[in-house]
Amino acid sequence: MSLEHELRRALSRKDPPGGFDDRVVSKIRAGETARMPIVRSRWSRWSRASLPLAASLMLAFGGSYYMHKQQERAAREQRAQTEQAARNVVLALQIASEKISAAQAKVEEITRHDPTNPR
Amino acid sequence: MLTAVTSPRTPAPSGDELLAQARTGSESAFAALVREHQAMVFGLAYHFLQSRAQAEELAQDVFLALHQNLSHVESARHLVFWLRRVTSNRCIDCVRSSQRRRELPIDGLCDPAVQPRFNDPLLGELLRTLVAELTPDARLVVTLRFQEDLDLSEIASVLDMPVNTVKSHLRRSMDALRRKLADRGHVYES
Questions:
Q1: Vertex B110, ends B84 and B121: CA angle to 5°?
Q2: What is this model's ipTM?
Q3: In a domain, A11, yes or no
Q4: A24: nearest CB among B34, B128, B181
Q5: Domain B1-115 = CATH 6.10.140.1670
């Protein structure tokens, strides 16, 4: 017998233990059923991670929007107060002007009837 | 579809038909493909790893990979080539990962039942033991040559290796086997 012939006999194809095909098919089934929960768990993992993220984002946006609105209102109130103050000043000036005009008219009238006035 | 594969009244479907049925999701057709090729895949893995448990695990992985890649397999002939190539690659990966993990060397992967027993009267077992002592590439070349009866160019194609490298591996392996056998009293002419 040649060495090649002996090697062919020694290294012939070899059957695996019985039920090999069943074990392969079971593994495939197990892999397929295991894949579905993986998808779900991935989704739930994403949703678990995204909920706090979304809440944080909402808080951040809500907070900045509230701050912006507060600043707007404060600015509006300040502007209104300034305008009111200006109006008050104008009114005060008008009143003062009227009083001065009235006093001046009184002085002129007194001066006109005064016999000591050389005019 | 199940009956088309398993009914004794209908002739057994060809490899191409089984492949087509397996591609459409037929579990029984895929199981038939496994049964048809399991001896080839398990044999390659076993002669390489010298461990039934590891060979079974590797062979199962190969068929799981096949199930995931059925759409890439074009024909029954291509399937045989694909299985030989994937099994060979997995064998090499197995050795590399065991070397990376600094586990037992390849000789240490042997089952107790196939540990070197140089006084074993069974020449076949001695030959398998000596083949297991070859380098991984040489071991695959020898196994593909004598288990699958492939010629040098076919082995080169499966292992993606130049033909001259395959030739060199085979020549050196045969010389080493003759020498080791001669040391144990089995003399073969070259």
A1: 100
A2: 0.78
A3: no
A4: B34
A5: no
